[in-house]
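Re: [ENG-882] Designed sequences occasionally contain unexpected residues at chain ends

Forwarding the minimal case from QA. Structure tokens:
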């Protein structure tokens, strides 16, 4: 493994609250019942398997998986310094690196048995997905190794009026950055187009978003939505031509609206294997 491209001037991102990412891990576990869908359990149970989490965020997936599969080694990478840094917060078989995700990844070819990436659709343009992120993920994956993506659609099913206003503003903001907030629907096609993968599977699931009618996990889903929006508070308020304070009020109104609108989120898991 090479570390020459690891960022050394660490980026401080503590001014924003990324705790919703930890909540999202629990929501995905509820929706999917597992932390991954690729049929790689046998690999993970063998000693010495290497796993990469691209865009690891707070590192919750890496830590959870490293506890469940102590014989494998898990590496999380992100360009934000929001993952665990205190050795006491790490497991013996987990490592985190800060590095650029759009440049060449700091690993040798054919290095990992399994590469995982989730909640990244807002981070990359369509061009970056096709020309940088996915090619690099494939490059560092071993022949016959697994790659897996998990994303949630930017728009929801049966959105209320206020939620629609907010998600439309997110769409407009993303469009200006050439980001496709519905790329989860197309990931299987993008993977197929590389010509380097086989055994491609695309799974989709729906889950309630909203407290009250949606129960515990519906409440969790709407809290995660609010957390994502608050991260983009300044940008979305400007997009909607309102003040940040008015945006805060709109989020609160959205939480109330979601208690009765029976809105659903749609999540995707796409996995494949690298051709030998």
């Amino acid at each position: 493994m090479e570390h020459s491209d690891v960022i050394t001037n660490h980026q401080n991102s503590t001014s924003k609250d990324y705790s919703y990412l930890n909540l999202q891990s629990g929501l995905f576990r509820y929706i999917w019942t597992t932390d991954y869908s690729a049929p790689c359990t046998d690999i993970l149970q063998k000693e010495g398997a290497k796993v990469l989490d691209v865009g690891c965020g707070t590192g919750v997936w890496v830590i959870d998986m490293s506890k469940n599969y102590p014989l494998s080694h898990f590496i999380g990478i992100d360009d934000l310094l929001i993952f665990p840094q205190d050795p006491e917060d790490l497991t013996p078989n987990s490592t985190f690196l800060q590095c650029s995700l759009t440049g060449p990844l700091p690993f040798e070819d054919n290095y990992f048995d399994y590469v995982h990436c989730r909640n990244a659709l807002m981070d990359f343009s369509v061009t970056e997905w096709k020309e940088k992120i996915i090619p690099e993920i494939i490059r560092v994956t071993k022949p016959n190794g697994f790659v897996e993506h998990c994303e949630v659609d930017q728009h929801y099913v049966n959105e209320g009026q206020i939620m629609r206003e907010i998600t439309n503003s997110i769409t407009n903001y993303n469009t200006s950055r050439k980001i496709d907030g519905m790329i989860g629907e197309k990931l299987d096609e993008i993977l197929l187009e590389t010509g380097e993968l086989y055994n491609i599977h695309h799974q989709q699931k729906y889950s309630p978003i909203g407290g009250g009618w949606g129960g515990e996990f519906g409440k969790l889903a709407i809290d995660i939505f609010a957390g994502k929006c608050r991260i983009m508070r300044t940008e979305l308020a400007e997009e909607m031509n309102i003040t940040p304070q008015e945006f805060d009020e709109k989020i609160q109104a959205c939480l109330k609206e979601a208690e009765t609108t029976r809105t659903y989120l749609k999540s995707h898991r796409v996995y494949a294997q690298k051709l030998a």
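QA comment: On inspection the terminal residues look reasonable. Residues 19-274 form a domain with the Rossmann fold fold (CATH 3.40.50.150). Proposing we downgrade this to a documentation issue.
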